[in-house]
Design goal:
Strand content of chain A: over 45%
Radius of gyration of chain A: 13 Å
Structural class of chain A: mainly beta
Helix content of chain B: under 10%
Oligomer: heterodimer
Shape of chain A: globular
Number of helices of chain B: 0
Helix content of chain A: under 10%
Distance between the termini of chain A: 36 Å
Radius of gyration of chain B: 13 Å
Largest sheet of chain A: 6 strands, mixed
Structural class of chain B: mainly beta
């Protein structure tokens, strides 16, 4: 079963625009991570935010975490065609330390 | 460093057969995890191995098994294949100093006919 749910399921934006996707989860977490997957290939780790952190930046990525609402958001600024991919949030449970993935958001960046 | 490698990349089997998939982690990584990805169920955790011992297990039937060797390479085996086992099987390794970050291989695409 999946711990996280992403919203929206799909997103289409113009190159240069920002893309925002959200993740909600159910149980207590140790940390939350975002991964990118290009068309049926392996996942690439983007960023990790710990349960005691509220915001983190990495290049054009900004992640927020609200543990009271059990939610996180990923913002990609100034999107590029190469950002076209599926994005998954994944949570590490503080109970059993298993990594559980959400269903993903498919982002299409139009040139 | 070379990334996580998985072999074979593509596999076609028929129902009832068994299959073995292989994963070589990044050099120095001792933890290897396996995931199944399907359009319907998404990414689901199968199991994790560390120092040749299964450290964590997901909710899959006993037909799914794995092992890890002393060089950290891992194999997973699926016996008595069912149509529903068709999926992308992903292997990931993590470093001893950053155990939460998973480095994924390209996956093995298994099709069961």
């Amino acid at each position: 079963s999946q711990q996280g749910e992403e919203d929206p399921q799909a997103l289409s934006i113009q190159e240069g625009e920002n893309a925002t996707m959200n993740c909600s989860y159910k149980t207590s977490i140790n940390n939350l991570q975002w991964y990118r997957q290009n068309s049926g290939r392996g996942l690439v780790h983007l960023i990790l935010i710990r349960s005691n952190e509220r915001e983190k930046h990495s290049g054009r990525l900004r992640v927020t975490l609200d543990t009271s609402k059990k939610s996180s958001s990923l913002l990609i600024t100034a999107s590029r065609a190469a950002d076209t991919a599926s994005y998954f949030c994944a949570t590490v449970s503080s109970n059993d330390y298993k990594l559980s993935f959400g269903a993903g958001t498919t982002v299409t960046v139009r040139a | 460093k070379a990334g996580v490698t998985q072999t074979p990349r593509y596999l076609i089997k028929t129902r009832g057969q068994q299959v073995t998939l292989s994963c070589s982690p990044i050099s120095g990584h001792r933890s290897v995890s396996w995931y199944q990805q399907t359009p319907g169920q998404g990414l689901q955790f199968l199991f994790e191995y560390f120092s040749e011992t299964q450290r964590n297990k997901g909710n899959f039937p006993g037909r799914f098994s794995g092992r890890q060797f002393s060089n950290s390479r891992s194999e997973m085996n699926v016996s008595t294949l069912e149509l529903g086992d068709s999926a992308l099987y992903l292997c990931a390794s993590s470093s001893p100093t950053s155990t939460d970050t998973q480095y994924f291989g390209p996956g093995t695409r298994l099709t069961v006919l």
